[in-house]
Amino acid sequence: MTSPRTVVAGPASWNTMVRLDHLPDPRPHTLFARGSVRTLGGTSAGKALHLADLGVAGTLVADVGTDPEADLILGALGHAGGTEVLARRVAGPSEQHLNLMTNAGERLSIYLAVPETSPEPDPAAVERVTAADHVVLDLSAVGQGLLPAAVAGGATLWTDLHDYDGVAEFHRPFADACSYVFLNDDGTDDHRALMTALLERGATTVVCTLGARGAVARTAEGWFETPAEPTEVLDTNGAGDAFFAGFFAAHLGGAGTAECLRAGARQATRALGTRHLSPLLDGKV
């Protein structure tokens, strides 16, 4: 029996992560960092690393630039064993972020550069998506470009809407097309109402991560909840992608929604215990 063919499409970036005691106030002043690291970023890269960590082989589709950071991105992705990296080179810079982080889990992400993505999807990526059993479409121009092929191919579609507020137009095509919809509660004061609305719009499973309060899922069968797994938190970056991967891998293994949530919470601790997206990168980037 062969494993399901999985494609993850979206951002892979090179990030500068700066740890602060608190996020900057909106006034001119000086802060001293508690530490910094340059490392792989991007929500799709994070999912690919954690799926590899769980033994789920697949293809990561991403655009990178023609700058030195592109080589750093691809070098780091080389540690996602079993993952095919289908990276299209586009002229100019790769995606780069400056992330200001605090020990309380707060984050301010500043886009330093974004690749000039072609309006036409990569033909090789279209081929992978069309043949896939599961396609994860992350918020990005890459994911948006592959959405028609993913729908036409008949795969089970997954997406991560992050801090969706229920009205943002860029998120809407992803939310409307995908059966498995993930988000966090940063963009809404009533995540349960938003989750119910997403279910009514066509999703079969909606999952909302709540940080230290755990996560909740909504399906036609009702509500499911799980607490966060106790662990030492070094860095919250990538925890949502790890949670997604844990849920996804458990689903592929035939687990029900409640067990998938618990598996997501367990995998999230793998990201929380490292300064990188995944411990697969510890000592390697």
Automatic annotation (TrEMBL):
Q: Which GO MF terms does the UniProt record name?
A: kinase activity
Q: Which InterPro entries match?
A: PfkB_dom, Ribokinase-like
Carbohydrate kinase PfkB domain segment(s):
188-269
Alphabetic keyword roster? Kinase, Transferase
Q: What is this protein called?
A: Sugar/nucleoside kinase (Ribokinase family)
Species assigned in the record: Promicromonospora sukumoe
